[in-house]
Structures are given as structure tokens and as C-alpha cells.
């Protein structure tokens, strides 16, 4: 059986997208289709900025990342991880919906969830500074190789997150999310939601789009942004998030660290790695 290591964080929406997709794959293929060892990267302790993580796992300093002796190099993006998994295990991409699934997944991943889920209080006139990164870069006792890795990460951070909370960016991301939700609402099957409410209907079963969309919607709901989610999709997410496949990923806890107690977080970190 192929063994993989998934670097993740229990409160990272992109990590949840991959973990929920794996959980759906397990429900299609049974637990023995591949082995995923989980490693928690505690971003609140800057573990994503550690030398060995940046040099050996993901130079972008983000989760999720998938490694395996069977891979030539780590896969460092949630959509790329899912695309790789569905090539090997195509059960979540029914042929009839393939094109639609990948088109909407691509659109979903053009949306920056940070802009919708993080409080404006983190913004400053210069943007959202990454204090941990600035501190590490100010140290004089680090290797040249590590400094170069931190500089790369810093440029990457500035290009994706520094201005993520600027007003115009937030408005743009809200609009992107609404446009996507309208498209998804149109394809969402009209079967009663308490049947299996998968996007393409209960007979098509779970798709990779369900795998990424549910964590995104649940995160927005947790962040108090239900105002931009159509009621039909709130009902879809509420129903799916009660089910075993989601509960086994989140252990029934909210997707935002600020809503979870310190003890629960320590416990989560122990349970969510093997
Ligand atoms: N495009 C990437 C985005 C990954 C991402 O933004 N990860 C966040 C957590 S959800 C992260 O690690 N942020 C820390 C940082 O960028 O410094 C993906 O889809 O995997």
C-alpha cells in the first residue's frame, strides 16, 4: 500500500479540503486504498517557517503539503494534491461531471479565504505583517541557506497575503465567492437535502468538488460570513457537516482556532498526527 505523509493544520481551510477529500475517498475505496500519515504543522508556533520545513517540504511555508517516497518531490498545493489523488483514485470525479468539477475547483482556488475569514483588526497601513517571519529575518545567527529560504517565503507571503485584508481586495473576493456560489447552487441537485446531498446527486456520490467546497463553506459560516452564502448551500453544508466523513476530520470542532480552547488544541495535535 502506498504511504504518504500529509503536513497539515487542523485550522487550515486548505488542509481541511485535502483531509475531507481523503475521507470521502476512504468512503468510496475503503480504508486500505493508501496510507496517510498526518503531521501537524503548528502555525501559531511558526513551525511552517522552520528551516527543515522550508528547505525540505514546502518553500512557500504553507500547508497542506504531501510527501512520499513514491513522489519525485512534495506536492505543495491542495488542488494539486487532490488532482494527483483523483488521477490515482478516480472515484471522486465521475466522467460525466469531470470538466465541470475541475473548472469550479479552479474557480474556488482563485478565491483567497483569508480575505473573508480574518478580522480587519489584523490589518495595518502596510498590510498584514507576518511578525514571526520579520523576526526570523532579523536574526544574524542563521545559515545563508535558511536566510534565502526565509527571503523567498517573505516575497511569497507579500504577494499573496500582505494586502489580503485591504478593502478593495475583500470586496473583490466577496464577489468572486458569490459568483461561484451562484454557479454551484445551479448544479446542486434538487433532491431532498437529508438524502445524500452531494452536489451531483446521491447516485453520483461524493465528488472532489464536494471535497473542497464543504470546508470552504463551513469556514465562512464559522467566520460569521453566512451573509454571502445562498440558503441552499447553507443547508447543504449543514447536512454534510453532520456526517461521519466530516466529523472524523474535525472531531466535531469548529474550523477556526480562535473558537477552540487551548486544551482541546493540544489534544487535537496529538490525535491528528500518526
Ligand atoms: N494555494 C494553496 C494555499 C495554501 C494556504 O494558503 N495555506 C495557508 C493555511 S490555509 C497557510 O499555510 N498559510 C500560512 C502562510 O501563508 O504563511 C493551497 O491551495 O494549498
TrEMBL record:
This is GST N-terminal domain-containing protein. InterPro entries: Glutathione_S-Trfase_N (IPR004045), Thioredoxin-like_sf (IPR036249). It comes from the Eukaryota. Residues 2-93 form the GST N-terminal domain.
